[in-house]
């Protein structure tokens, strides 16, 4: 059968629409910064142009009557008021359109919430010391962060939903009247043991799911993308703004789950980008990303 010539105008229209559709799935990269002094400053991290979100990690002690403690290992000492200069870096990042969040929790620390009242106290502390409130003891100075990231790995699910509600209630308050953005970093087995109930609130803007250190739901070269795809489908059904694919930026960054850049681009991203909730990828961490250049390799496809 003889082929018909497609009018140039129609062809251009089809190509243009395809580009729009692809653009609708264009995502950003979220990175964790703060746990290795050899990863450069926060300002340098943002100036790289690679990231849309930076999670400053970690506030690793809080709740249950404990004095909250910030740990920016190797960068500065909050105990001697030595981290206020990081506040200038926060402002530098924000001037570039990058959202900077404080990550609370982490894999090592002493944290938890004993009651709804405790959750309210922690929310007030975060508001006064890192968000739009006022306090004489702000660890990062007068910088107003964009929100809070819940990296809760304690296994205790109690009252994190209350903390999310109290924090979100601070949106549009204070002199800057900023939205308080909420993010979470659950493990990929669904639902997450710690944050399952909190995520049901529908208050989280960004959810970067950790598809590593969890073999049943992560990508492997031998097993392919099926396990990850199944878990991803479950995660994209939660009532959240955007869902991100969380990965280690180097094989050494996690016990398992590293995905070669070529596999991410050719095999994994085409699957996860089908969801309208796809927001991009999250990487642990800036230190490892510098070692491998992972973001540089994959960003054009994210």
UniProtKB/TrEMBL annotation:
InterPro entries: Cts1-like (IPR045321), GH (IPR017853), Glyco_hydro18_cat (IPR001223), Glyco_hydro_18_chit_AS (IPR001579), Glycosyl_Hydrlase18_Chitinase (IPR050542)
Keyword Heme: no
The protein's Enzyme Commission number: 3.2.1.14
Residue ranges of every copy of the GH18 domain listed in the record: 27-302
CDD domains cross-referenced by the UniProt entry: GH18_hevamine_XipI_class_III
Gene3D superfamilies in the record: Glycosidases
GO cellular component: extracellular region
Catalysed reactions, as listed in the record: Random endo-hydrolysis of N-acetyl-beta-D-glucosaminide (1->4)-beta-linkages in chitin and chitodextrins
BP terms from Gene Ontology: chitin catabolic process; polysaccharide catabolic process
Keyword terms: Carbohydrate metabolism, Chitin degradation, Disulfide bond, Glycosidase, Hydrolase, Polysaccharide degradation, Signal
Root EC class: hydrolase
One Gene Ontology molecular-function label: endochitinase activity
Region forming the signal peptide: 1-26
Family stated for the protein in its record: Belongs to the glycosyl hydrolase 18 family.
The protein, known as: chitinase
